Amino acid sequence: MGQWSDRAYALFEEQQAERGIDIEWVKGRLTGLKVETPSWGYGDSGTRFKVFKKVGVPRNPFEKLDDAAVVHQLTGACPTVAIHIPWDKVDDYGELRSYAESVGLRIGAVNPNVFQEDDYMLGSVTNADPQIRRKAINHLLECVDVMKQVGSDALSLWFADGTNYPGQAHLRRRKQWLQEALAETYQALSSNMKMLIEYKFFEPGFYHTDLADWGMAFNAAAKLGPQAEVLVDTGHHAPGTNVEHIVSYLLDEGKLGGFHFNSRKYADDDLIVGSTNPYELFLIFYQILEASRDVNPLVRETAENIAYMIDQSHSIEPKIPAMIRSIANIQTQYAKALLINHDDVRALQAKNDVLGAENAVRSAFEMDVTPLLTAVREEQGLPVDPMRAFLESGYQEHIASRGIGGSSW
Ligand code: LRH
Ligand code: MN
Ligand code: MN
Fold first, then answer.
1. One GO molecular-function annotation for this sequence (predicted)?
2. Is residue 232's pLDDT more than 70?
3. Is the ipTM of this complex over 0.95?
4. Which run of H or E residues covers position 180?
5. Nearest atom, ligand 1, residue 111 CA
6. Which residue of 70, 118, 170, 223 has the fewest C-beta atoms within 10 A of its own C-beta?
């Protein structure tokens, strides 16, 4: 480390010791935080108005893995990549798995896609037409098979199913069909596999969505069994929703399976994590760390086995830098949450000291964790500034030879 950062870190360590924080534990936790990146985040995407085509975007799933490998090399935090089928459809999934391993990665969650075919316009697993429901379930089962071939342990489910008008469809029948489809898919899982059930309050359905909120996803998962859990996509809530409360509730029920991290100002904006709502991210981590100290082993285990994933779609941003920025923002908020002194907070809560407890949480958010992140990255032999390292690496210039026209969809 340079002289300046050495001094800053020494001071930081002293300050945290005084606050009763075990800095070695903090460092271990920070190093241990792994976040999965989505294959589709490396491709071109856009809004319903325009997809801007960028030079150097991957032309196939293998090139997406190449880009994801660079993000992992620079951050040390992203060893797995989520795939979306058929966006990442290949002839030989064994080859995809070997390729991932050859660039230092593993395949993470497999995401079935039952929303982009004409057949699914009025619903997939909730369609009134039994043949379309069968087709959708068959795709879910095919994805369980893909999981076996790529060595994945998470099936990540999101359904676009919904309606636009009152009376358009029979809501309770659809609820039952959805549960039947999930139950059949659940039966196909191996014992090491999790089913993660994602919800979203609207879009593309503007009147109702079959899995609209965490309660519906929770109920579906609870009926299925222990391998089914809820996935919280931070962008899938109405503005003002207390997402960290949902997180704490699901943790207490042993049903929080994973996250899709992203930022939103209005709806499912899929923007860089922590760009508009860093305090929310910090408070989510606060709830998770609080649960990891629970007396109930189920709550502790749930908190320790969360699948952290990014779900972003980069419409105007250069893809790899956007991913690096997101990882850095997650690490920053996690580092801050690690500085919360939970004994202090709990003692203040027990005394009903409203402002004292609020201060004990917020003051951790207000700390500068740059010296800590610098020290941890350096100790791992990683660049202290991964963004700068990327921009100076020449990789962006190198991939320009791919030309224009790669796409995630
Ligand atoms: C739906 C969603 C879901 C999809 C992804 C591309 O809005 O969050 O996770 O799989 O976007
Ligand atoms: Mn998502
Ligand atoms: Mn989404």
1. L-rhamnose isomerase activity
2. yes
3. yes
4. helix 171-188
5. 10
6. 118
